Amino acid sequence: MRMRGCRLMVASALLTVVSVALAGAAPPAVAPKVDIKQHRYSPDTLVIPAGTTVTWVNHDDDVHTVVSTAQTFTSRAIDNEESFSYTFTKPGTYVYFCTLHPLMTAKVVVK
Q: Has residue 49 got a pLDDT over 80?
């Protein structure tokens, strides 16, 4: 009987330690993604910290590109369900567009 009580106290103490540790744990980071659908970038403005990699995924039947107006980054032609990624290392505002559909524009703001 004494041993069972001791085991219960130890188990309870371990559960408390695990609960406290998990409560302070940060949730896993979600990599930012821009969806290309219906000839639009979504979201059309993305705010991220420096050092973040953004991935664009084309969900249209048409081919699209992701090209910075300042020529900071340039994707190849991205076909349906293909993607392009770029890591933003410096703060600033990066406006981009699709060279095949110039009315498609958006921006990434890096803090």
A: yes
Q: How many domains does the chain have?
A: 1
Between 76 and 20, name the one with better pLDDT.
76
Record the pTM.
Answer: 0.74
Instruction: From 47, 37, 43, 32, select the one nearest 86 (Cα to Cα).
Output: 32
72: exposed, middle or buried (Cβ count in 10 Å: 0-12, 13-18, 19+):
middle
Omega into 32 within 30° of 0, i.e. cis?
no
Question: Is 51 within the bounds of a domain?
Answer: yes
5 phi and psi angles, rounded to 5 deg: -60, -40
SS3 82: coil
